[in-house]
Amino acid sequence: MQVGLFSEHHPEVPVEVVAQADQLRAKIRQYDHEYYVLDAPSVPDSEYDRVFRALKALEEAHPALIVPDSPTQRVGGAPMATLMPVRHHLPMLSIETETDISEQGAYNFDARVRKKLGLLAEDGDIEYAAELKFDGLALSLRYERGSLVQAATRGDGEVGEDVTHNIRTIRQIPLQLHAGAPDVLEVRGEVYMSRPDFERYNARQREQGKPTLVNPRNGAAGSIRQLDPRLAAQRPLSFFAYGLGQTSGWQVPATHEQVLDALQVFGFPVCRERTVGLGAASLASFHQAIAAKRDQLTYDIDGVVYKVNRLELQRELGFRSREPNWAVAHKFPAQEELTILDNIEVQVGRTGAITPVARLQPVFVGGVTVTNATLHNQDEIDRKDVRIGDTVIVRRAGDVIPEVVSVVMERRPVDTQPYVLLEAIRHQCPVCGSHAVRLPEEAAVRCTGGLFCAAQRKQAILHFASRRAMDIEGLGEKLVDQLVDGQWVKTLADIYHLDLTTLSGLERMAEKSAQNLLDALQASKQTTFNRFIYALGIRNVGEATAKDLARHFGKLEALQAADIEVLQQVADVGPVVARSIAEFFAETHNREIIARLVQAGVQWEEAEGRQASTGLLEGKTFVLTGTLPTMSRDEAKERIEAAGGKVSGSVSKKTSYVVAGSDAGSKLGKAEELGLSILDEAGLLGLLAG
Ligand SMILES: NC(=O)c1ccc[n+]([C@@H]2O[C@H](COP(=O)([O-])OP(=O)(O)OC[C@H]3O[C@@H](n4cnc5c(N)ncnc54)[C@H](O)[C@@H]3O)[C@@H](O)[C@H]2O)c1
Ligand SMILES: [Zn+2]
């Protein structure tokens, strides 16, 4: 060993090692504060764990370094000053992490437990309970005589925060226990946000231009530690019970497995993914089985937890400063990792949305190597201030596409520039060169190329051919892929110029089906004006609007010539819809394609759109929900519209009638809430009959 300078306080440890430990502790203290107090971590857990392990390794090599307030000796962070402190009757500990994520990890844990208990090979295998390690926030729920009296976070393990006001908004947590509950029962478990709830919440926030949650764990922790329970109530949270705190007036079962069974009987959600087995092999196989299933679970887990099953043995094993000796967390590959963002490129989607995509230095995250991640849209880039050259946190969980969740600002290189998508593409669609725009009320940048844009062509053709548009039977997804990829169809109008030789030369296309398709194409040319408008796939123009437009304008020339003002004279056409219609017809490519469609023989009776209705239901708006006994939903809709009524998708005060069949959903509930008239099929037929 090099004999050099030694520290004053640790005479046996070289100063540079002391300095290194101090540096690591300062980092950990900063990360802990961001994570536990601010609920805003700046680095992913994987990075935190690396720093933590480095400190642990230093302390193991130089035990004199260990001080009682080292992060390796304590749990969590200080409670938030704004919430009331709660002293735990029994401390809430952490769990030791097994560093070897291979199956060897299970064997290491078993070996440590056996050694501590002084067991020999002939003493037989230990019984273990294995369960999931949920990635949320630990809670202690206290029930007295069956009623929830207090909910507390872990805090530093001794003193947590009172979050009862927020916990009461979580439906999965019983306020009252089923009969037979003990005098005092403290239940420990994890509050979490499911992935679908997280995705839905973020999608809605993104749509409204509001801040998104970084990950489900943060979403859960952030809402539980709010002061205002209304904020917590807006975020959908769930709960899993996994253990006990203090109890009294109860014969506590003999094993962990039986404790969980009992909690389930009392009314707590307990995760089904758990098992009990003998020895390390059973643990290793659980680890493997869950790893294979991880992506299909609807919530985040960061590993599995092994616990000695018999509580008597747990007591014998006891605990150290921050973790029990009878449990271990056996992790999986991290779902969030650090990497460098090399470039931002764009992709044009099937609806013309131009989305920014991050090109990343390859990084192993969520079990796969990731090189691309979505950045969603300009608003998200602005909010996260993502720049080329940044070190970013990438998240890949479940089957959701990888996403850049945040930037590690500390590591931003000098000379970076904010990224502006429209400027980067010079206001042009990179696929077709059409003008790219961003509507003020929209997050997305869009290509205005419409039917001309190859990226949008396949989708446009499928929509054009669909049953309620031009109704071209046999023109399905596989065929459209071949036609567009093979350059047979460059614009929509080309489909009417396909011939038998070309079609029967395609993969899996017999002459008979080729001829059938040609017949279907021919038949589709005779259509109605409203179907044709709908078939063009103009943004924001659905079937109902297409009908209104057909009825109002009667002629294609009139519709094409209408400006935004004139368009808004049509019932139900607001400024947004009017603008997308005007923009569509303003694009030269689109006008050309329409002209070619007409040239190819597409025609309709000009008057059809104005067909006289019986007028019986004029001015009435209907909402359909559930399955009607004899009529299909389309049929009901057609008959209502034929009688002059309107069919809308959502219930509001303006709804005249809600027609409800079996398995009616939330719309029926809403209708009842608003006190609207609710009809069954017979009632609707009655109205139609006058
Ligand atoms: N990114 C950051 O800046 C940052 C900062 C601090 C901590 N962290 C992360 O926090 C974690 C360390 O903190 P920790 O001490 O809470 O350890 P931990 O989260 O790894 O393990 C203990 C916790 O596991 C939870 N748990 C989940 N399922 C469980 C089950 N079935 N049985 C028992 N407990 C279960 C409990 O909430 C318990 O408190 C690490 O993952 C670390 O990366 C990250
Ligand atoms: Zn384009």
Automatic annotation (TrEMBL):
<feature type="binding site">
    <location>
        <begin position="45"/>
        <end position="49"/>
    </location>
    <ligand>
        <name>NAD(+)</name>
    </ligand>
</feature>
<keyword id="KW-0520">NAD</keyword>
<feature type="active site" description="N6-AMP-lysine intermediate">
    <location>
        <position position="133"/>
    </location>
</feature>
<dbReference type="Pfam" id="PF03119">
    <property type="entry name" value="DNA_ligase_ZBD"/>
</dbReference>
<comment type="similarity">
    <text>Belongs to the NAD-dependent DNA ligase family. LigA subfamily.</text>
</comment>
<dbReference type="InterPro" id="IPR041663">
    <property type="entry name" value="DisA/LigA_HHH"/>
</dbReference>
<feature type="binding site">
    <location>
        <position position="429"/>
    </location>
    <ligand>
        <name>Zn(2+)</name>
    </ligand>
</feature>
<dbReference type="Pfam" id="PF03120">
    <property type="entry name" value="OB_DNA_ligase"/>
</dbReference>
<keyword id="KW-0862">Zinc</keyword>
<feature type="binding site">
    <location>
        <position position="307"/>
    </location>
    <ligand>
        <name>NAD(+)</name>
    </ligand>
</feature>
<feature type="binding site">
    <location>
        <position position="453"/>
    </location>
    <ligand>
        <name>Zn(2+)</name>
    </ligand>
</feature>
<feature type="binding site">
    <location>
        <position position="131"/>
    </location>
    <ligand>
        <name>NAD(+)</name>
    </ligand>
</feature>
<dbReference type="InterPro" id="IPR036420">
    <property type="entry name" value="BRCT_dom_sf"/>
</dbReference>
<comment type="function">
    <text>DNA ligase that catalyzes the formation of phosphodiester linkages between 5'-phosphoryl and 3'-hydroxyl groups in double-stranded DNA using NAD as a coenzyme and as the energy source for the reaction. It is essential for DNA replication and repair of damaged DNA.</text>
</comment>
<dbReference type="GO" id="GO:0006260">
    <property type="term" value="P:DNA replication"/>
</dbReference>
<dbReference type="InterPro" id="IPR013840">
    <property type="entry name" value="DNAligase_N"/>
</dbReference>
<dbReference type="GO" id="GO:0046872">
    <property type="term" value="F:metal ion binding"/>
</dbReference>
<dbReference type="InterPro" id="IPR001357">
    <property type="entry name" value="BRCT_dom"/>
</dbReference>
<dbReference type="GO" id="GO:0003911">
    <property type="term" value="F:DNA ligase (NAD+) activity"/>
</dbReference>
<keyword id="KW-0460">Magnesium</keyword>
<feature type="domain" description="BRCT">
    <location>
        <begin position="612"/>
        <end position="690"/>
    </location>
</feature>
<keyword id="KW-0234">DNA repair</keyword>
<keyword id="KW-0227">DNA damage</keyword>
<keyword id="KW-0479">Metal-binding</keyword>
<dbReference type="GO" id="GO:0061860">
    <property type="term" value="F:DNA clamp unloader activity"/>
</dbReference>
<dbReference type="Pfam" id="PF14520">
    <property type="entry name" value="HHH_5"/>
</dbReference>
<keyword id="KW-0436">Ligase</keyword>
<dbReference type="InterPro" id="IPR003583">
    <property type="entry name" value="Hlx-hairpin-Hlx_DNA-bd_motif"/>
</dbReference>
<protein>
    <recommendedName>
        <fullName>DNA ligase</fullName>
        <ecNumber>6.5.1.2</ecNumber>
    </recommendedName>
</protein>
<feature type="binding site">
    <location>
        <position position="331"/>
    </location>
    <ligand>
        <name>NAD(+)</name>
    </ligand>
</feature>
<dbReference type="InterPro" id="IPR018239">
    <property type="entry name" value="DNA_ligase_AS"/>
</dbReference>
<dbReference type="InterPro" id="IPR033136">
    <property type="entry name" value="DNA_ligase_CS"/>
</dbReference>
<dbReference type="InterPro" id="IPR004149">
    <property type="entry name" value="Znf_DNAligase_C4"/>
</dbReference>
<feature type="binding site">
    <location>
        <begin position="94"/>
        <end position="95"/>
    </location>
    <ligand>
        <name>NAD(+)</name>
    </ligand>
</feature>
<feature type="binding site">
    <location>
        <position position="432"/>
    </location>
    <ligand>
        <name>Zn(2+)</name>
    </ligand>
</feature>
<dbReference type="InterPro" id="IPR013839">
    <property type="entry name" value="DNAligase_adenylation"/>
</dbReference>
<dbReference type="InterPro" id="IPR012340">
    <property type="entry name" value="NA-bd_OB-fold"/>
</dbReference>
<dbReference type="Pfam" id="PF12826">
    <property type="entry name" value="HHH_2"/>
</dbReference>
<dbReference type="InterPro" id="IPR004150">
    <property type="entry name" value="NAD_DNA_ligase_OB"/>
</dbReference>
<keyword id="KW-0464">Manganese</keyword>
<dbReference type="Pfam" id="PF01653">
    <property type="entry name" value="DNA_ligase_aden"/>
</dbReference>
<dbReference type="GO" id="GO:0006281">
    <property type="term" value="P:DNA repair"/>
</dbReference>
